[in-house]
Amino acid sequence: MRGLWTTARVRSAEERVLAVTPPGALMRRAAFGVASVALELLGGRRRVGLLVGAGNNGGDALWAGHHLRRRGVAVFAVLLAPERAHPEGLAAFRRAGGRVVAELPPVDLVVDGIVGLSARGPLRPDAAEHVARLDAPVLAVDLPSGVDPDTGAVDGPHVRAHTTVTFGCLKPVHALADCGDVRLVDLGLGPELGGPDLVELELDDVGAAWPVPGPEDDKYTQGVTGVAAGSATYPGAAVLSTGAAVLATSGMVRYAGAAADHVRARWPEAVCTGSTTDAGRVQSWVVGPGLGTGLSAEAVLRGVLEAGVPVCADADAITMLANNPDLWDARDPGTPLVLTPHDREYERLLGPVGPDRVAAARRAADRFDAVVLLKGHTTVIAGPDGRTLVNRARSSWAATAGSGDVLSGVLGALLAAGLDPVLAAGCAARAHVLAAELAADGAPVPASVLLAALPDAIRAVRPL
Ligand SMILES: NC(=O)C1=CN([C@@H]2O[C@H](COP(=O)(O)OP(=O)(O)OC[C@H]3O[C@@H](n4cnc5c(N)ncnc54)[C@H](O)[C@@H]3O)[C@@H](O)[C@H]2O)[C@@H](O)CC1
Ligand SMILES: Nc1ncnc2c1ncn2[C@@H]1O[C@H](COP(=O)(O)OP(=O)(O)O)[C@@H](O)[C@H]1O
Ligand SMILES: [K+]
User: Coiled-coil region(s) at which residues (predicted)?
Assistant: First the structure.
């Protein structure tokens, strides 16, 4: 697991560490880290440019320039706010033979020290002009300037980093936005930080949590997944969602709905019936993909919410809950509910997602007392207890029709297996991203092909 801490938490930890550290020591350690990574990226080339803002982020860049000069690198600095440039950093940079210039000459690497933790909004026009002219790879100090440190939101000109060197701990931006390769320099903040605000699951975490049958297990003991999805108009959603549940875990999957013949034909191992009322017992329900939103779909949703087992409500189920709030009353308050909206479905529930996806997911989790998995390139999972996971895709090939149906089936299977619902959502999202990567391998991947890559994704995360 990788923890991420908001700027407010970082600041308070830094304050306590600064109080017991010689002045300037933390900055010099941070800058030394930047210079080391710069040398690695330079690989023997010898010209570096610095973009230096008004604060300590610029100070880091100037001290890094000082270290690089000592290693014989030619270093040029543009001071975006000359009168407010970090005084000790600037003096050290000049002493070491660094040159202050109005505009960067051709260089092999640019160090972005424009703005760090104090960043607000996109790059200001003068900084944006310098950034627009760059053609060398950028090493960002702490975070790519112009990207919001706490939300990862980008709302105008910003730096695109090849690599980011951050200090003390990871911040939300490092999981929520593209920071290139992220390197962490230890500043000894650990003991002062406390628990993280956000968590990113790593593949090992997913592998360790994935249900594996033991010698005593049979098809029932591992949890039976129920899928209430699909319709005469949308049988494909039922086939995809059921198939994902079949492939995600061992055990049994029951399908109930109008697409039973289609599901049976594709997944002979699924136990299919025409209706949820005669489906038999299950340990979780997936409800919604391709179900429709008419009266019969509402009756299905109501029945599933009353069933007293964990429910993953996706797609049309979310639309029905948004359109007809009485449906919430059917819910058994003691059993977990996971909602998996994309942004437009979220908007039906609570209005626009806005630039802060973490806050949006938390708002919904709190409002509906549910686990909310807000889908997208950056997926955010929030539990009603405040736990929050983030999962950023490496590519966007999963943005294809039906891929959400696959996600719902995986999630339903993990709920049936008894995983904690926040962890189930996190594991499902991570495995889905991995399956998309493996299946796409640089070309479009239809949802049925993404689905077929699930076993490879599970194999890849499982411990050897
Ligand atoms: N506090 C500490 O102990 C340490 C801090 N360090 C560095 O200090 C940084 C934070 O420094 P500061 O708090 O001085 O502030 P920053 O350097 O992040 O920001 C400085 C100034 O940039 C301007 N600015 C804000 N948004 C901007 C935008 N969108 N475009 C252009 N300019 C903008 C503002 O005038 C702001 O005050 C960290 O990111 C890190 O790089 C490191 O030296 C490690 C130790
Ligand atoms: N730009 C993107 N990059 C990566 N993954 C994405 C992107 N957009 C959507 N996804 C993922 O693809 C899936 C789409 O789900 P959804 O919108 O419900 O599609 P559908 O209803 O067609 O199944 C989700 O898992 C989501 O996280
Ligand atoms: K920066």
Answer: none
Report yes or no on whether pTM surpasses 0.90: yes
Tell me the CA distances in angstroms from 375 to 47, 316, 381, one per residue in order.
Answer: 42, 15, 9
Question: Is the beta carbon of 165 within 6 A of some atom in ligand 1?
Answer: no
> Angle formed by the axes of helices 357-368 and 343-350, to 10°?
50
Among the bound ligands, name the one nearest to the CA of residue 146. Answer: 1
Tell me whether strands 271-273 and 252-256 are parallel, antiparallel or unpaired.
parallel
Ligand whose nearest atom lies closest to the CA of 342: 2
Q: Measure Cα distances from 455 to 25, 101, 206, 248, 289 in Å.
A: 49, 56, 14, 7, 22
Domains of the chain, CATH where assigned: 2-199 (3.40.50.10260), 203-461 (3.40.1190.20)
Report pLDDT digits (tens) over 297-352. Answer: 999 999 999 999 999 999 999 999 999 999 999 999 899 999 999 999 999 999 99
**Does the ipTM surpass 0.85?**
yes
Alpha carbons 136 and 241: distance in angstroms, whole number = 45
